[in-house]
Fold this protein.
Amino acid sequence: MKAKIKLNKYKNNIISISGSKNSSLPIIAASILCDEYLTLNNIPNIKDVTLLIDILRNLGQTIIFKNNTLTIYPHKITTNALFDSNISKLRGSYYLIGSIIGSNKECDFSIIYPGGCTLGSRPINFHINAFRKMGLLVNTKKEKIHFEGNIHPTIHDLDYPSVGTTINIILASVKLEGITIINNCALEPEIIDLINFLNSMGANISISNHTIIINGVNYLHSTNYTVSSDRIEAGTFLILGALHNGITIKNINPNDIYSLINLLRSINIDISMTNNSVTIHKNKELKPFNLVISPYPGFPTDLGPLICVLATQINGTSTIKDTVYKTRNSHIKELNKMNCLISCNKSIISIEGISKIKNKTIKAYDLRCCASLILAASLNNKFTTIKNIDYIFRGYENIKDKLNSLGIDFIV
Ligand code: EPU
């Protein structure tokens, strides 16, 4: 699918941020661990969420999704062959592995590989190592992975604070008798959201420094839980506001995007905030920056391609080094087609500003690449055509209406 995007007349408006994609996916997958029905609020109506709902329905779950509220009546998953082709369409489907392991005393099932955006190589070896450490026999084949055996509590010392691995260990061990410890865990806000959700059902999970302690419980009761807002959507609109004439985003905890707020302030952007909103004021002359992207509380990798667009509008040379996904570069070639001057050498991206963005036909290669191309297209008052625009609907709710309300035309 293609979309045409251009600047009509920028309106400094208020954007209400939707629920978090990367919280919703593990929380929805975790619903099969619950022993009663549960209600989730603030669930974004985006493609990745509806795909996961379809997968769960095909696995026998009763799910009602209406007006961002999801009611789930979990049923025991009886199949031992998870071969639904939707599983290979999203990365978040790997949370089904942790949830199925966590809801069965004894495991014996196969699943096809999860998919998702291609950000260079995206192996799941950390997950597999963790499951093996818990006692499972994990057999990786070309097209599927087989899990067999019983898990036992253990101490995990992660080599890298992987978001997905931390979540999968939590899901697998929340109902496991005994104490599971994850040292050097990831502590992204989405992980805190998942822990709060599980604890709201009676789980016993605590955090101490960079360690998560899971004291297994045998029953998880009903809950009515509201998922946090999407810090990456929030960051996307803040950067858009920084590119234009300001913006206010509401329904967001500014602490979740503090690394972005700090960076924007350091380059001369005026920002004010309340406990659930952030306002970017009209820009002065901005300063170039040198940014290193790292796990939370560092600057988020998912905003790397977007902040790159801002750098193209700043006089001088800015640099970005992503230590999380070292080859997350698919936006560079496309932005350069639009007259940007971006190069990459030994995983350091250098951006020379200021570029006058030209309208072109360009192609998105993943979700955040697509978002960065939309930001660039919003800088020209002639239509840019973006191929593969479907990516944006995986992660941004009502994007068309939100952009229109800011005076940016988005025609699919
Ligand atoms: N890694 C491995 N082996 C593994 C797992 C990860 O080598 O088994 C590597 C990755 O290749 C990467 C690094 O470790 O270089 C970090 O990966 P991590 O496990 O932390 O990320 P993830 O769980 O695969 C989630 C989000 C991503 C987000 C990252 C980092 C979901 C579904 N995905 O991915 O979101 O970029 O954490 O914050 O929650 C997006 O929303 O566009 C997106 C890509």
About this structure: The chain has 13 helices and 24 strands. The two ends are 8 Å apart (CA to CA).
